[in-house]
Amino acid sequence: MRHHTIAEVMSRDPATARVDTGFAELVRLMAARSVSALPVLDEDGRVLGVVSEADLLAKESVQERPHAISALLRRHAERVRARGTTAGELMSSPAVTIAPEATIPHGARMMVDRRVKLLPVIDPDARLLGVVSRSDLLKMFSRPDSEILTEIADEVFMRGLGIGTEGVRITLAGGIVTLEGRVERRSWATVADALTRQIDGVVDVHTLLDYDWDDAAITIPEAMVVDITHEPRR
Question: Is the keyword Iron-sulfur in the record (predicted)?
Answer without folding.
Answer: no
